[in-house]
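Batch 3, record 17
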Amino acid sequence: MAKILIVNASECTGCGACELACSMRNVGEFNPSRSRIQIVSLESDFFRLPVVCSQCYKPPCAAICPTGAITRDEATGIVEVSKEKCDGCRMCEEACPFGNIFFSEQEQKAVKCELCGGDPQCVLFCATKALEFREPEAKTAGKRRALAEKLKEVYQLQAV
Amino acid sequence: MYGWMGTILRVDLTSGKIEKEPMSEKLRLNYLGGRGINSRILYDSVGPGVDALSPENVLIFGTSPLVGTIAPSAARITVTAKSPLGGILGDGNAGGHFSVEMKRAGYDHIVFTGKADKPVYLWIENDHVELKPAEHLWGKTTSETDEEIHRELEDPIVKIANIGSAGENLARCACIQFQVCHAAGRAGMGAVMGSKNLKAVAVRGTKGVKVAHPGPFMRLAKELYELIMNSPGYKELSTYGTPAITVDTHMMGMQSCKNSITNIWSEIEKLDHRVLKRDYYVKSLACTACPRHCNQAWVVKEGPYAGERGGKLEYAAVGTFGCACLISDLAAIAKMNSLCDEYGIDIMEIGVGLSAAMEWYEKGLITKDDTDGIDLIWGNAEGAIEVIHKVARREGFGNLLADGPVRAAKQIGQGADKYITVHVKGLTMGATDVRSIKGHALSQGTSSRGADHLRGGYGEFPEPPPFMLPIFKEKFGTEEAAFAGSYNKSAPTVYSENSFTLTDSLELCKINTEWTGVPIDIKKHGELFSLATGVEMDEKAISTAADRIWNVERAFSVREGITRKDDVLGGKWGSEPIPDGPSKGERIDRKKFNKLLDDYYQVRGWDSMGIPTASTLSALGLEDIAEEFRKKGLIEAV
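Prediction for the assembled complex:
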């Protein structure tokens, strides 16, 4: 099964190393405003959320693209934008519910996380494993386990 | 240009004139960035005798060629001015995310001159730079100001540095807060900002930072992340923050308690970092590009201080408010920390001031008549909180303490300064007792901004761990220097001062260097600098740059009248032995310390009065300073 980027928001410290690694890999400079992964900081609530494309199975950005520039590679699961076909109409920006594909002023094209072709650089610099690159099954299994941990106390209370 | 953005922003607050000046190659190659370039600009801008709180002082914000890159913790900022506390070079250094935002807006340094006729704040959005009115913000706390400016600018990503009431009221212990909980704490920079009627600096930048050799730079960065994450103490500091060291420091007999009347305190377990984590910490946060995430966000959940919240509750607060004032209630310490953040007060200066005041009160040097009726007995948290409010407002007893304990002691007379734990050149320092670690004691004396723990000090232990001995042998030619009690400390002290100078000039964080046992040393600083800027500097070349910066800082102070007599420790630690505990009897032996100063001056190339010699200055390319010193008769004419 193709690996995906898994975000564990509770572990994110907001250091932004992912944005720096991403922009260096993709645009050759350190510049979070051009990073494909974006950390949203809710400062006063101490909450940090890395927001990045989840490589949807049926990507709305691809469905709406009038030039057929956005496709999903069946083998790798990566949703890619063809630089040749994209004409910068920004329809995909409208279609994505999460803000994970956006128009680059510099390139005049739509850009998004393409998992660095299968070796995402952001993950390499994440100190707390807020970002992991692994099988999607692990994500859902992990969530089930976290749920079990929470419910454990409730059930134990009932047993008493 | 790689690394640097290449622009110094000059803002004259008197005329409102804003200029963008290309940063000269001379400045970049000789002083690197951050603290180094700030110090040189200060030397060139503020002549001797200028009142630190007058419009003739400058206020300089400095990033570095590494800030904004992925180099670990390249997120710091140095703010420099002539210090209103010591009257010598002053600077404060803060973390957070402001520095990278300023760099991305396109500026390596900002130099404020003059004084605005009404309160203003500076708004920078990339190339757009504008002074905006701030009368409506004057009097507001730092978090209120932060919120209000965010509302005005309608952009949650804007990063803001500002001062609270302490800076507005020219309290000499005032600091500048960045994103509320990060502080350029030391040397009274907040008072200088207040004296200029500058309430805040708000910045938003979307430009990229480029490096000369991206591939090797990324590989080195990754290597350094791993060195940090595999280093001893990584887990402790990333889980508990700096309070992780309180209990251990106490165990070694090096925690000043009750204003150094004792180094043993029966209630120390109440300040245990594990209690902090269990009862107060809610989330681990990091400065930009830092894998250490030592900032633990905290919330007080119950009791009289319920609802207080903040970040960065440091060892400085736990050690001074806690141990030195005998306040064992962590919630009260958190409240005091929070008040200092909101008013913009240096926690070290006020912490040392409060513990000295409690002893003045106990010994009868001051009474309730002086403290506005506050019963300032040991451990009185409510009283201490009341004093902090008064300091920010410069009201009654607070007016006295607002200028730091050294000036307060002068007002009180009766030898009050002898009760301050330690002071050097007008600055005091936190609660780690350096009497048993002679190299650290020396670096308090020679620190270029006055007493401070972040200017120098190389690992030394009563019983050094075996792996330290070969390191000392290799670096300094002697194993003896590794022992805390040895006075053979000139070489490691000079080395550490240079290492710290580079960390500050590249605006990295000392928590990720050899200071905490991470093998990120002078050589690694050189590698990062070279790969980022494309300017090759090996260990020797970058050490020379550090020497140059250190000598310019010294020269600034020498020009203000500083000599050998000012390099000794004032207060208790300079004269009395440690009274009890595992380090009982340890003291600074005056004769041996004098000999150590001689050794140190020799390594530095300074004369017996601590003045850089003509040959030292010219070897560093500082002929202009040598010439000035000759004219002033500070060094012999050729």
